[in-house]
User: Fold this.
Amino acid sequence: MSFKLNESITYVGKIDWELRKFHGEEYSTHRGSSYNSYLVRDEKTVLIDTVWQPFGQEFVAKLKQEIDLKEIDYIIMNHSEPDHSGALPFLMEEIPDTPIYCTANGRKIIQGHYHKDWNFVEVKTGDRLQLGKREIIFIEARMLHWPDTMFSYLTEDNILFSNDGFGQHLASEHMYNDLVNTAELHYEALKYYGNILTPFSKLVEAKINEILKLGLPINMICPSHGVIWRDNPLQIVELYQKWAKDYQENQVTIIYDTMWNSTRKMAEALASGIRMVNPELTVKLYNSARSDKTDIVAEVFRSKAVLMGSSTINNGYLYSIAGILDEIKGMKFKNKKAAAFGSYGWSGEAVKLLSEELHKSGFDIIDDGVRLLWVPDEAGLAQCVEMGRRIGENLK
Assistant:
């Protein structure tokens, strides 16, 4: 797929309608994605980023229909991850001497991926590449979200090519933010931030402030996944500024796994108690064994508090709870509260262990929790309702 952003800039990326998992099996992409690549023509011609390796040969073949490859003067790799650099080996077979502009870390990682000593040109923040009337200004964005990441700003057109920053996994035949469903777009952008950029929020905030201080006008933000921000493009920057500040909505997320539905009944009773005293609070329940972990992490990102429940098994907690807890720990969430609950038949350690792990993960433990033997009776469920009431009052 190719289309013109204007007379000088052409989109030459790939829309991936079939993608359902990303980063191996780690990230769910229910709405597909795209791998965005851009061709900028001036007195000199530059290709910005490529596509994922499975589409590498297709990418080069279609690029040949757009331009004689020998007319490409420069290649810019804003980020070396294989979904952006995967077509490089196919492309460099055709134009092996073309200089590749990247950060010093980008060079190391690209060489680590493909074991080729291509014509690399290392750049840092403030370096410029003259194209003619236009020039590219490079802005390093280390750890957003890899050590090599950078942004490229195009003068005259006032476009920020932001790679993974400000992107989202969303496939669409309409590649602009004003042409797609706004609710879907904003959710996918939030999910992307919550699952990928949350650990680097302080760096996100600092980098945005650095870019804004440069005073560069921005007419368009072109990420490497999802749609292009052309209608009020700074709206996504403003969202990032909000998300980077220990974000939370008026929501609590209850995550549980259950063997014989006892812990499920406890989760539902907890939710009931919360609603009794705090009806404006959004309460969401997820069975971690049956729900998508990326979606759960997005909901934790939105939440004031997380309640986590599990049956006790082998002196610990259930497998899916261990997995989602590990995901949450890696996100390094801040300014969020938590509590644990669960049923047991023999030893009953799960609640204590979950509380300890949530505390280690940075959550403020606001309740000792409830642990119930075997199947909860009315008195046991009443304990869960009361715990829910305590949580609801705490979150007012």
User: Anything to note?
Assistant: The CA atoms of residues 163 and 224 lie 4 Å apart.
